């Protein structure tokens, strides 16, 4: 009888200093489960440092380490999602390659999976990070929980184990730009949550920036909430109503005191800028929803691969 297969999937971009340690720590964690075969799939999003050379060396030494090289950088969502869907394991573990997702949590995930949980998710309860970013994350989780039509998991970034049954559903959805955190709660699978304290990055630089965080935040909101559009409708009604009554007020005063009443241009300028700002905000919200629709309709490939390594080898 063949062993069950566990796939560990990670995406990387300019992680030359972390890939070797990541491989070693995953192998150490998986050594506790000789009853399973496993494979490690790493998709490189067109790194500009020595990451690809390091990946090639690891592939030469370990035939169950598989690498995918993209022809260009396809973004922080499409690239790892592509590799995630390629995994054929009975269980698939998704994680980051920067070691901020500790591989030492893998045994706990597998244990929860063996207990019958469809998902075993790592949830951050704290971080060694300083500054405004941790505060911004907490604010976002607070906001998304209140805006979303489904429950959301605070502190969950995608790091976790997914049973084959969940993977089959993910593949059937044909999501070109998914918000996985929302998908798993929308589906309602039985899940276990594993708390952990996020370690500080020790090598390299974080690839996250304002635009990446904003993209993820907006993706979560527009994928799982219609509340912004409803708020836009309500604001439109209030602004229209307010404008109507303000206009009526000025018209009555002007009729009653035609020669002495001077409204001036200040109310006109303030009202104009307020309405223009509101208009652009609403257009931006609508544009996010339309952009999501266009992404689903165009059906472009998630990534274009340059080459694969070790995908014809059997894991051992």
TrEMBL record:
<feature type="domain" description="Glycosyltransferase 2-like">
    <location>
        <begin position="7"/>
        <end position="133"/>
    </location>
</feature>
<feature type="transmembrane region" description="Helical">
    <location>
        <begin position="231"/>
        <end position="252"/>
    </location>
</feature>
<keyword id="KW-1133">Transmembrane helix</keyword>
<protein>
    <submittedName>
        <fullName>Glycosyltransferase involved in cell wall bisynthesis</fullName>
    </submittedName>
</protein>
<dbReference type="GO" id="GO:0016757">
    <property type="term" value="F:glycosyltransferase activity"/>
</dbReference>
<keyword id="KW-0812">Transmembrane</keyword>
<dbReference type="Pfam" id="PF00535">
    <property type="entry name" value="Glycos_transf_2"/>
</dbReference>
<keyword id="KW-0328">Glycosyltransferase</keyword>
<dbReference type="GO" id="GO:0005886">
    <property type="term" value="C:plasma membrane"/>
</dbReference>
<dbReference type="InterPro" id="IPR050256">
    <property type="entry name" value="Glycosyltransferase_2"/>
</dbReference>
<keyword id="KW-0808">Transferase</keyword>
<keyword id="KW-0472">Membrane</keyword>
<dbReference type="InterPro" id="IPR001173">
    <property type="entry name" value="Glyco_trans_2-like"/>
</dbReference>
<dbReference type="InterPro" id="IPR029044">
    <property type="entry name" value="Nucleotide-diphossugar_trans"/>
</dbReference>
<feature type="transmembrane region" description="Helical">
    <location>
        <begin position="264"/>
        <end position="290"/>
    </location>
</feature>
